[in-house]
Amino acid sequence: MVGLGFIWYGSGERQPFTFFNDNNQWLQMDKAGHAFTAYHISNTNAILFQKAGVSKKKALLWSGIASTSMMLPIEILDGFSADYGASWGDFVANSIGAFLPFQQLIWEENYIHPKFSFSPSSYAELRPNTLGHNFYEQWLKDYNGQTYWLSANFNLLSKKNVFPDWLAFSLGYSGKEMVYGDIETNSLNGYHAKRQMFLSLDVDFSKIETQKKWLQTIFYIANLIKIPFPTLEWSENKVILHPVYF
Question: InterPro entries from the entry (predicted)?
Answer without folding.
Answer: DUF2279_periplasmic_lipo (IPR018736)
